[in-house]
Specification:
The chain has about 120 residues and is of the alpha+beta class. The protein is built from three helices and four strands; from the N terminus they run H-E-E-E-H-E-H. The longest helix has about 40 residues.
């Protein structure tokens, strides 16, 4: 029989203590990782739903709206607030810029924002 362990009791007990110490360290690390994963999963479950439409706000007095985005757009800035569908449509048709990346005007089925007001037919 192949036996590569030390022949004396003192060294065997030392090895046992050393391995028990390492098992405790490993178990502690496993418990910490399981706790972190459980917290992350709880965070994912409790995260509020992403809004459907977001308006990016400008700087200055009143923080005017500057751009409309589809919720979850990667290009939206830090100054933002969620808006309902009707307000997003109203903002876009009133001249607030549509994001060129997520194209909320297309998602809201607003056909042509560049058309502007119809020309006057009055004669001078």
């Amino acid at each position: 029989m192949f036996d590569d362990l030390p022949p004396d009791l003192a060294r065997l007990l030392t090895l046992r203590v050393w391995h028990a110490m390492w098992l405790q360290r490993i178990d502690t690390k496993i418990a910490a990782l399981q706790q972190r994963e459980a917290e992350q999963e709880q965070g994912r479950r409790n995260r509020p739903a992403e809004p459907d439409w977001v308006v990016e706000l400008g700087i200055g007095h009143g923080r005017p709206p500057i751009e409309v985005h589809v919720g979850g757009c990667y290009a939206v800035g830090k100054r933002r607030r969620p808006v309902p569908r009707d307000e997003a449509r109203r903002l876009l048709t009133s001249g607030v810029r549509a994001c060129g990346h997520c194209q909320p005007d297309t998602a809201l089925e607003i056909l042509d924002l560049s058309a502007g007001p119809a020309p006057s037919t009055a004669t001078h």
